[in-house]
């Protein structure tokens, strides 16, 4: 039986260092993200996702604008968010922006909706973190109605009601592929199944195969809600170089600095090389190493979790743009063919 597997890349537009070890200005980082996506298209990868943040260490606060710039310089790669923080946005505007992206990219837009792991957007847009759950639940309910591209009647507590309202522009296909991004909450998995949306697992630590019970829960919930079988994807960090030692040594100092910076905000202990090596090992969630090592690890989790897509979060804190470009090229030209060869998977159907 021939299957389809998509291999993609995600970035948060991490502010990187230049050759002298100084941070680049955010405008240059944004231009570099566009160049990275263009290379991803050239080397045959299937998806490029950009996350939304509102802080000094990540340059992208408006993913759709960057994705539109990428759309104008690419021809086939699918383009989406990773993730869109729906709780602090307006569902109608999110739909309109991605429907517009879908139009200018000739049908290549996707959305990954989530609550996000950072909370800066809530005070920025005047929202109360005490309403965290209600904001996401209500806005997701409305968004799933908008995806039907029919007049919407909806009311709730978090925005103005809609009464038989048509939202423009419609897409040419009649739908925008929309995923729910989850970290590890069973409630979030069930919510994705309830709304009949594909599941994107953000696995950034521990053992990816330990998420198998959540995958099983998703399948059981889909059946209970009488929904069809839907795709499951994984988003995990990683970096590729010619050898395992080179990849780990180049990634580690930037990964350590990023983990410690975020850890100070969240009360984590300091990152250690020992823990990094554990996560970089065969059973861990960091996909770092030679093309052969990374391909084997991806093939293992694709098979073990029944994935339809694997997205490598390739930007690692301040790791320089030039090294990221090399990692992207290796991912597309060497890792992707090895994964598909090992699993006997076909290349996904391409648009146009």
List keywords for this structure.
single chain, 352 residues, alpha/beta, TIM Barrel, two-stranded antiparallel sheet, 12 strands, globular
Written account of the structure:
The chain has helices at residues 26-42, 63-71, 91-104, 121-124, 132-146, 186-194, 212-224, 244-266, 273-280, 291-305, 321-343; strands spanning 6-11, 47-50, 78-81, 84-85, 109-114, 152-154, 162-165, 177-182, 199-202, 232-240, 287-289, 309-313. By secondary structure, it is an alpha/beta fold. The chain has a single domain (6-343), classed as TIM Barrel (Alpha-Beta Barrel). Strand 4, helix 3 and strand 5 form a beta-alpha-beta unit. This is LLM class flavin-dependent oxidoreductase. It comes from Cryobacterium flavum.
Task: Give a concise summary.
With 352 residues, this protein is α/β, with parallel strands linked by helices.
How would you characterize the largest beta sheet? Answer: 8 strands, parallel, barrel
| Proper CATH architecture | Alpha-Beta Barrel
- The poorly predicted ranges are 347-352
Task: Note the run of SSEs as H and E.
Answer: EHEHEEHEHHEEEHEHEHHEHEH
Average pLDDT figure: 95
Cα-to-Cα separation, first versus last residue:
25 Å
Shape: globular
